[in-house]
Specification:
- The protein is of the alpha/beta class.
- The chain has two domains: 161 residues, Ribonuclease Inhibitor (Leucine-rich repeat, LRR (right-handed beta-alpha superhelix)), CATH 3.80.10.10; 60 residues, no CATH class.
- The chain contains five helices and seven strands.
- The protein has a seven-stranded mixed beta sheet with strand order 1-2-3-4-5-6-7, with no helix packed on it.
- A hairpin with a 2-residue loop joins strand 6 and strand 7.
- Helix 4 packs antiparallel against helix 5.
- It is globular.
- The protein starts with a helix and ends in an 11-residue tail after the last helix.
- The N terminus is likely disordered.
């Protein structure tokens, strides 16, 4: 565990140094560092972070970082969290070719043009530009169509702001939304009783069947059950993959887990 004086020194310099990284990780060689958490340390300059050539996961959230230049040498970076900083360009990340997860919520990205540099990152599946839980945003999120623009700019993206926008999870989301809209229409037409309203137990036409509505509901249930079954299968595969990853990670003596 770090001493208070060590943290205070980090905050005073505002620059990442080799001594700082070694003291925080216990590693003697910067190239041996695979996981690094430098959250909320008042960092404004990335310094020698680029010397951690084998770094895979990096958390630099809640600092004062403006430039990401030194990150261009991190060819093995898979997950990066630079949320809540002062970043206006992501150009240095062009070299991070296997990056999969990126959190840049709470920065100064003004338009989707600033994401064009990420277009070639074919493995980038998750990007967070907005985080309502912590009230983090980017100026480009002020338009309602920014998510569609992100999907067009970075074709590989599957998750935006924590919500799956393509794939089976997205299908389930849209199906539930369609069901909700259909129920709203039924309520508006008086076909579904609104809570709190008083209606007779038997109404005119109560015993008249409505085959059209029944068919719609049956088909909806069928689609819903099919998607749920597919989600269960995906969940099982995900559990197996996670179990394999945990066994592999247990051999690396990794530091504390990261939150992205």
């Amino acid at each position: 565990m770090e001493s208070r004086s060590s943290k205070d020194q980090d905050n005073q310099t505002g620059r990442i140094t080799g001594e700082m990284l070694k003291s925080r990780t216990g590693e003697f060689d910067l190239e041996s560092i695979l996981f690094l958490k430098l959250r909320n340390l008042g960092i404004s300059e990335l310094g020698c972070i680029g010397d951690c050539m084998n770094l895979e996961r990096l958390d630099l959230s809640n600092n004062h970082i403006v430039h990401l230049g030194p990150l261009s040498s991190l060819k093995l970076l898979v997950a990066l969290n630079v949320s809540c900083n002062r970043i206006s360009t992501l150009e240095p990340l062009v070299s991070c070719e296997i990056l999969q997860t990126l959190n840049v919520a709470g920065n100064l990205l003004c338009s989707t043009d600033s994401l064009q540099c990420l277009k070639g990152l074919s493995r980038l599946e998750s990007i967070r530009l907005r985080d309502p839980v912590y009230n983090l945003n980017n100026p480009l999120c002020n338009t309602n169509s920014y998510r569609q623009a992100v999907m067009e700019t970075i074709p590989s993206v599957r998750i935006i702001d924590g919500e799956r926008v393509t794939g089976c999870g997205s299908d389930l989301y849209h199906l539930c939304r369609d069901i909700d809209n259909s129920l709203k229409r039924f309520i508006g037409n008086g076909d579904v009783e609104v809570p709190g309203s008083v209606r007779p137990w038997v109404e005119d036409g109560y015993w008249v069947t409505k085959p059209a509505q029944s068919t719609i509901i049956e088909e909806t249930y069928k689609q819903f059950n099919d998607v749920v079954q597919e989600c269960k299968e995906l969940s099982k595969r995900a559990d197996d993959t996670i179990a394999q990853a945990e066994r592999a990670l247990s051999l690396r003596n990794e530091p504390n887990s990261f939150v992205f």
